[in-house]
Amino acid sequence: MIARYLERGVAAGTIAGLAYGAFMGLVGNPLVAYMEAAAHHDHGHEHASAVAETTTTIVSIGSGVLWGILLGGLFGLAYYFLEPSLPGAGTARAYVLAGAGFLSVSVAPWLLLPPATPGAQQALDTGTRLLVYAALMAVGALVSAAAVLAYRSVAARGRLVAAVAAVAPIVILGVAASLAAPTATANDALARELVAAFRGVVVLSQAALWLLVAGCFGWLHRRGGSDSTTARDRTSASNA
Amino acid sequence: MTTSNETVRDRIDRARLELSPPQILAVVALTAALGFALLFLQEPLAHDSMHNFRHAAGITCH
What we know:
InterPro entries (chain B): CbtB_put
Transmembrane segments (chain B): 24-41
Strand content of chain A: under 5%
Radius of gyration of chain B: 18 Å
Protein name (chain B): Cobalt transporter subunit CbtB
Helix content of chain A: over 70%
Order of helices and strands of chain A: HHHEHHEHH
Organism (chain B): Natronococcus jeotgali DSM 18795
Number of helices of chain B: 4
Largest interface: A-B, 60 and 39 residues
Strand order of the largest sheet of chain A: 1-2
Radius of gyration of chain A: 21 Å
Order of helices and strands of chain B: HHHH
Number of strands of chain A: 2
Shape of chain B: elongated
Number of strands of chain B: 0
Low-confidence stretches of chain B: none
Structural class of chain A: mainly alpha
Largest sheet of chain B: none
Oligomer: heterodimer
Largest sheet of chain A: 2 strands, antiparallel
Number of helices of chain A: 7
Distance between the termini of chain A: 19 Å
Pfam families (chain B): CbtB (PF09489)
Structural class of chain B: mainly alpha
Helix content of chain B: over 70%
């Protein structure tokens, strides 16, 4: 049974990853290249890259596809284990899990380390930022778990009350993050509007990736039947 | 849904029965390798090749 969930997760992730790879090729690559050029033009120094631009373009598209596959595979595995405790009915649970994934993998780290614009000067060194990023992923996962537990604990009182209870831990995370020392990135080389637009594109594209993973997974799940180890396996075995 | 009377604990027990330790290890190793390469690998050639992707995905970078 777990193998089927993993299969569906990887399949959903491949579909979402291909869409995200296309997005990388059509939007991500040109946008980053444009911002890099703009930042360096104003800054007056050229950043030497270790590889050719074509390599970056192609590998970035490929990484986008792999990113979808990784998230989809993890999603399938997590869904297998957590399905019994996720709120909602049927494949609505997939969207709850995708929301939790988006919160853990992206939103929580972004609260302290907002998507870095090309050419921005970072206040912290790379090693520290990687540690902070990983720690915030764990915090995001804990907050997601707290939100689900809060929802379940008051679910009997109605959906609205439960939804409010579920939002509470997420709001607390947001407030706590805004009180913590913000990680300063100097973006003076780029217009404020351009930085905001770039971040908006990053946030929306990641949200869309998760939505696509959940949507495709739910679709494959409905087609395959959610508990297909027993009945279906036996049927296919006897047909073979 | 078939899951109504199942718990997370049941799912873990079931996975233990269905998977052999080498299979679990393979999945964990593959996931870790892919995750590390995409998110954390800072080696200049790898890093610069994935540069646009990391910026566009909002993953921490250089």
